[in-house]
Amino acid sequence: MSRGFVKEGDQEEAVIIPQRAPLPPGVVNYVTAAGYRQLTDEKEELLNELANIPKDNDTEHRRTMTLINGKLALLEERMASARIIELKDQPQDEVRFGATVEIQNGNKKLKFQITGIDEADVKKQKIAFIAPIAKAITGAKEGDTVSFRLGGKMSELKILKISYQ
I need a surface site. Which of 22, 26, 41, 106 has the fewest CB within 10 A? Predict the structure, then answer.
């Protein structure tokens, strides 16, 4: 039947599946072991949601199923491309992926861990390895000062401490 003969109220709105944080083309999807566990936990939660979708409303059931299956597909794609980096294998005296770094920026002291894209969370003091500040300090050692353009001006970042937890 032609869509011209369907009542306007009968048309379903398209399901919008939220995209994951983008990984730039050609960039390896590095994750910490903890970050990979987060992804597997997220998959378990989605599978649990999928198994427990209420079936009392066909339209809502179909929309929810489409949404969860879309999220699962994106998650599984991300998990398949993940390359787990063991923190114990990183050079302990150098800023690399997985490092927790304390830096001095003028009068401010900052502390954060360099993580994978999916585990990055500023509130938890975790930034993605592709973030400009992470790129700027990668390879630096304790005591090094690194120049970094912040808000249109150059800043000097001093590496105070590097640790791998």
Answer: 26
Instruction: Indicate the pairing of strand 82-85 with strand 100-105.
Output: unpaired
* Dist CA 118 CA 21 (whole Å): 7
Pick the CATH number of 19-84 from 1.10.510, 3.40.720, 3.30.70, 1.10.287: 1.10.287
- Candidates 130, 159, 162; CA nearest to 144 is 159
**The length of the chain, given as a count of residues:** 165
Query: Global pTM?
Result: 0.85
Q: Which CATH number fits domain 88-163: 2.60.40.3710, 3.10.50.30, 3.20.20.150, 3.40.50.12780?
A: 3.10.50.30
For residue 144, the SS3 value is coil
Query: What's at 119, amino acid-wise?
Result: E
